[in-house]
Write a structure and sequence with these properties.
Residues 1-26 have low confidence and may be disordered. The protein has four helices and 58 strands. It is mostly beta strands. Helix content is 3%, strand content 54%.
């Protein structure tokens, strides 16, 4: 690309070097508590020692204060041993303390009078509930992730697929009413999604590299920002004092795929031929351990994924081919007892032929893509005292993606076609594609300081700053510089466009302050505030985007009984969208060409309807505000038994200042339009009542302004019930049920958080016809979601693991649309039934893994042989077409049938 990649990387590196270092939005774990004697009196001066093979730098020590309190902070997720010793008292040892990422465990210690040489050991009984936070954090730990059956997209594609295993997150990747692109995914604390609009693409990693997944969207404190869906942090494995590793081979063959179309009509069985997988193979290897004991750890991994499949209903039996090599390396170094450094580098390169293979894309309308990505991160921590932690961090990612039509099609033509009635794309690529390149670089720092007995029992004060540099360069075009829009196979309209090239550069500076205030030993308040300075510029236009959002937050946690087993939480906060280049890169009009919509009168004979010239016809409201949501969360969590916790919570979100384009100069005249009914034929019995639509009076005179329309809205409310059982006594489980509602006139579909789709340049607030019938359920509204997953270690036949997963999710809502011809602006698609009038069939899936683990000569080495069966019940469900006419209600897609995959895994 003409604007060189080298320049972008140099700019990004300069941004890192010049920025005041700032910590990314992540908090490591802590263990805290109070040491008391048998009579309940506090014990100062107790020496506490914390040990784990995974602690770089070796064991840590602390001394209880005058109030008996102690604290260990900046802990990686691991299993720990805590020892308390004081002259004149028995030594107390707590073992098998499991500390998840981003959690504060409260572990009180009671010491009895006796000799120091006398020891009392308590194994397990690690707390499940974090009673010091108002955040309702969800976690997916390594034991659960390793045991569950893995669907191919989780194993091998974008990292953000992993959090669809969390409560309240749909299979469409929408979380609690947020847009599909409103999710912030971090890998080891560094944002890993591309800089133009977040959740459509991210760095990828092998499933086996995951240590833990933390999902922080509900009640997140001021450290976390730049999302309105969910924010997730994937913690990749690290080395330790113990050498460990894994080799894994998994495959699926053609004969291992079932057929779930037998209940369909003969025509539908032909249309939706079952998924065919001629070959799918995933190979990975990894190892971690000490380079210098207690001082320097390493972890590295490589994986290679290869797949050939013919998706269900693939037109012309188009074969999709995916190739994905990946590798990563990670180091943890204790430079000194108080100074630690860790770093990560990851690279993947997804190459896909025919990515759109399916029931709506003809073979000649497909393309090939190539998307290499690079991710890096470094984190330096300094603990000048046991009450102060200083963090510095840098990191970033770079992505390039190129798309090319599949032969015989080329960029020179012929033009692609999209049928409004059937939704089928044909002839050539029928969407705007090209080349993208983006870089995002983050740098920053934070100071955490603990203060005791000031205005209450204690304070954990954290102050941080972040600097982020974004750049994205995007080339898009139509094959043959045209795209035909057909009606029932006949060319009706054509878009004539010679393509565009846009570039955007953004800078974000964020400051935050957060207090965890122990008002009493049972009540914790968490006030915080986050402030951002967002700036965006485009070539030829200079600085075009400027917002300064302030995000206040307040939360409270009440340890109801004082035994650290029951917590009531409440949290209110504002959460602003992140800064993405899509919000301003359209202002780069130097290489944008006019877009003409014309009616097709005959082959190559057109009548121009509208013309849009970007130069001088795009703008950004100088008073634009950063879109945000108000979120309120309240709930209760209770540890029922050792390792078992249950919870219930209410979540409300109201999306405000939504980004959307408006047309400030076009003039519209109302006119009455008859509804031809489901058959799309006027004068029949199913005709509906007439309605008001709008005709454009001054075609070609539009001015599109990105702003915050006052009538744009979306809301979410839901109740969520949950249960978790940590691995013990040969079983583990996670279960959740979410009852919710997402509605408004801006859907939660892809891109609607950054002025695309229903909020875009042809969206609901540009053309009044597009707002008709749009106030209803959001496109990915799912009133009912049930997710149950777990593992049982069966004792029969020498022992084996059984790991099922069940998911139920309401079908997506839809309503009837009609295509109306005769407008001066061309054919309009109008929604005559609100979305939610009908629903597609629900998702009902049972997946199962059965694994037999064979011990080898050494007890730390095992060989596992397993089989995953995805869609065990061979369930079938699909989506239907919503355009009136002969295809209304006809199947548009169908689910994959039962699929088996077998694997073998060696661990040491």
């Amino acid at each position: 690309m003409a604007r060189s990649l080298v320049r972008k990387i140099v700019v990004g590196c300069i941004g890192v070097l010049l920025a005041a270092a700032a910590a990314s939005a992540q908090t490591r774990s802590s263990i805290t508590g109070t040491v008391k004697d048998a009579g309940g009196g506090v014990l100062p001066g107790v020496t506490l020692t914390l040990e784990s093979p995974g602690m770089v730098g070796g064991a840590q020590t602390d001394t209880s204060g005058t109030d008996g309190q102690y604290r260990f902070s900046d802990l990686p997720p691991a299993v720990y041993t805590l020892t308390a010793a004081l002259q004149g008292f028995q030594t107390v040892k707590r073992t098998d303390l499991r500390v998840p990422f981003g959690t504060t465990l409260t572990i009180d210690v009671t010491m009895s009078v006796g000799a120091v040489s006398e020891s009392l050991t308590v194994s397990g009984q690690s707390p499940v509930v974090d009673v010091k936070t108002s955040a309702a954090t969800q976690k997916l730990d390594r034991e659960l992730l390793e045991a569950l059956p893995v669907t191919p997209n989780l194993h091998s594609f974008q990292a953000f697929e992993i959090f669809t295993l969390a409560p309240g997150v749909t299979t469409n990747r929408t979380a609690h009413g947020g847009s599909r692109d409103a999710n912030n995914l971090m890998i080891d604390g560094v944002p890993s999604t591309i800089p133009n609009r977040a959740g459509i693409d991210s760095a990828s990693f092998a499933y086996n590299w995951i240590q833990e997944v933390q999902i922080v969207s509900l009640g997140a404190n001021a450290e976390y920002g730049d999302f309105s869906g969910t924010i997730s942090n994937v913690v990749l494995r690290s080395g330790s004092n113990q050498l460990h590793g894994l080799g894994d081979f998994e495959t699926t063959r053609a004969g291992w795929v079932g057929n779930n179309t037998r209940d369909l009509t003969p025509a539908q069985q032909v249309q939706f031929k079952p998924l065919n997988i001629p070959n799918q193979t995933d190979v990975s290897a990894q190892a971690g351990g000490p380079l210098v004991r207690d001082r320097l750890f390493f972890f590295g991994g490589y994986s290679y994924y290869y797949q050939r499949q013919i998706p269900s209903g693939s037109l012309g039996d188009t074969v999709r081919k995916d190739t994905l090599p990946r590798f990563m390396g990670k180091m943890n170094w204790a430079i000194a007892p108080t100074l630690k450094l860790e770093g990560l580098f990851e690279h993947d390169n997804l190459q896909v032929d025919n990515p759109k293979a399916g029931a709506s894309v003809a073979p000649e309308a497909n393309y090939s893509s190539n998307a290499p990505k690079y991710l890096w991160t470094n984190r330096l921590t300094w603990t000048p005292s046991n009450v102060t932690l200083v963090e510095f961090k840098t990191g970033g990612m770079h992505i390039f993606e190129g798309q090319t039509p599949r032969p015989p099609g080329t960029w020179d033509g012929p033009p692609g076609h999209t049928d409004r009635t059937t939704g089928i794309q044909s002839v050539n690529v029928a969407s705007a594609l090209g080349e993208d390149a983006g870089t995002r670089v983050l740098a920053g720092g934070a100071i955490t300081h603990w203060v005791s007995e000031k205005w209450g029992r204690s304070h954990e004060l954290k102050f941080g700053a972040e600097y982020e540099h974004l750049n994205y360069d995007e080339v898009a075009r139509y094959a043959g510089n045209m795209l035909y829009q057909d009606v029932s196979g006949k060319a009706d309209q054509v878009i004539i466009w010679n393509g565009s090239r846009v570039e955007g550069t953004g800078q974000r500076v964020s400051l935050y302050a957060q207090d965890t205030w122990g008002l009493t030993d049972r009540v914790t308040l968490q006030p915080g505030v986050r402030f951002a300075i967002n700036r965006g510029s485009a070539p030829g236009a200079g600085k075009v985007y400027s917002t300064n959002p302030v995000s206040p937050r307040i939360g409270a946690a009440w340890d109801v009984m004082g035994d650290h087993r029951t917590v009531v939480r409440a949290h209110w906060g504002q959460f602003h969208e992140g800064l993405f280049t899509t919000l301003f890169q359209f202002m780069d009009t130097t290489d944008q060409n006019p877009k003409i919509t014309a009616r097709v009168l005959a082959p190559n004979v057109f009548q121009e309807l509208t013309r849009f010239t970007p130069a001088g016809n795009f703008g950004i409201d100088p008073k634009i505000k950063q879109a945000y949501m108000n979120q309120f969360v309240a709930g209760i969590e209770r540890e029922l038994f050792t390792d078992v916790a249950v919870s219930v919570q209410y979540v409300y979100r109201n999306y405000k200042d939504i980004f959307a384009f408006v047309d400030t100069t076009s003039q519209w005249a109302p006119l009455t339009v008859p509804d031809p009914g489901i058959d799309n034929v006027l004068g029949t019995a199913d005709d509906g009542p007439s309605f008001t639509a709008y005709n454009l009076l001054n075609p070609g005179q539009s001015f599109l302004l990105l702003t915050n329309p006052s009538n744009a809205k979306r809301r979410y409310s839901g109740v969520q019930f949950g249960m978790t059982k940590r691995l013990s006594h040969n079983w583990q489980a996670s279960a959740s049920y979410t009852y919710s509602k997402t509605d408004g006139n801006v859907s939660n579909a892809q891109g609607t958080n950054v002025g695309l789709g229903e909020a875009g340049t042809t969206g609901n607030f540009v053309d009044p016809n597009h707002l008709i019938g749009m106030d209803g359920r959001a496109g990915f509204d799912a009133p009912h979601q049930l997710l149950i997953q777990g593992t049982y270690r069966a004792p029969w036949f020498g022992g084996f693991n059984v790991s099922p997963r069940y998911r139920y999710q309401s079908g997506t809502p839809y309503g009837r649309t009609i295509s109306v011809r005769g407008f001066s602006q061309g054919t309009e698609t109008i929604r005559v039934e609100p979305r939610g009038t009908h629903r597609n069939s629900p998702t009902r899936l049972v997946d199962l893994r059965i694994e037999k683990t064979l011990p080898l000569q050494r007890p730390d080495r095992t060989l596992g042989v397993y089989v995953d069966v995805i869609n065990l019940g061979n369930a079938g469900f699909g989506t239907v077409r919503e355009t009136a006419g002969s295809t209304f209600g006809a199947l548009a897609s169908w689910s994959n049938p039962r699929t088996a995959q077998a694997g073998v895994r060696f661990t040491f």
